[in-house]
């Protein structure tokens, strides 16, 4: 899914679509690429927040009533921020994504969770931190993503290798 921000079917978009199709890539030009990007961001930022903060894969997160609600509320926060930025996101989008999450393999986890486990730098600044920053710009509270950001900030740079003196 790709497209122009103005929703047009530009020549370059059509040429890229044709190249994708020739290469056997299932592709589509979106009339509202901002919405597509935000919808991906809703799921990605929230799955990263849920799996990294609980240090568990998706299966346990969606199976326990409290962490399932946490995941749903994380997605609701991002969707609210997107809407406040003028992006068309359906009112029940978080619930739709939770139903989608129920179809995924229980061992699935976001890369931020893997990075945390391996002591690598985290995408925290761009995921939950991004939600917090974008929410602040439009006056939308993001207490759950802020809590995730604040709880994981000490891990954001990864484990620092000790240097010899």
The first-level CATH class name of the largest domain:
Mainly Alpha
Cα(first) to Cα(last) distance is 51 Å
**How big a fraction of the residues is strand?**
under 5%
If helices are DSSP runs of H or I spanning 4 or more residues, what is the number of helices? 8
Anisotropy-based shape: globular
Q: Helix amount, in percent?
A: 55-70%
Question: Which regions have little confidence, pLDDT < 50, spanning 5+ residues?
Answer: none
- Looking at CATH, the homologous superfamily of the largest domain is N-(1-d-carboxylethyl)-l-norvaline Dehydrogenase, domain 2
Q: Please give the CATH architecture of the largest domain.
A: Orthogonal Bundle
Radius of gyration over all CA atoms, rounded = 18 Å
Q: Structurally, how many domains make up the residues? A: 2
Count of extended strands: 0
Characterize the largest beta sheet: strand count, sense, and whether it forms a barrel. none
Mean pLDDT comes to 94
What fold name goes in the CATH topology slot of the largest domain? N-(1-d-carboxylethyl)-l-norvaline Dehydrogenase, domain 2
């Amino acid at each position: 899914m790709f497209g122009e921000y103005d929703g047009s079917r530009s020549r370059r978009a059509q040429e890229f679509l044709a190249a994708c199709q020739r290469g056997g890539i299932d592709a589509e030009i979106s009339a509202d690429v901002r919405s597509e990007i935000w919808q991906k961001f809703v799921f990605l930022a929230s799955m990263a927040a849920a799996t990294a903060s609980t240090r568990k894969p998706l299966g346990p997160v969606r199976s326990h009533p409290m962490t399932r609600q946490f995941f749903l509320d994380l997605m609701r926060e991002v969707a609210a921020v997107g809407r406040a930025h003028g992006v068309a996101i359906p009112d029940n989008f978080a619930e739709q994504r939770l139903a989608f999450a129920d179809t995924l393999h229980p061992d699935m986890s976001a890369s931020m969770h893997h990075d945390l486990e391996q002591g690598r730098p985290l995408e925290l600044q761009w995921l939950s931190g991004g939600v917090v920053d974008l929410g602040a710009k439009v006056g939308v509270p993001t207490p759950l993503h802020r809590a995730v950001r604040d709880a994981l900030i000490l891990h954001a740079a990864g484990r620092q290798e000790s240097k010899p003196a």
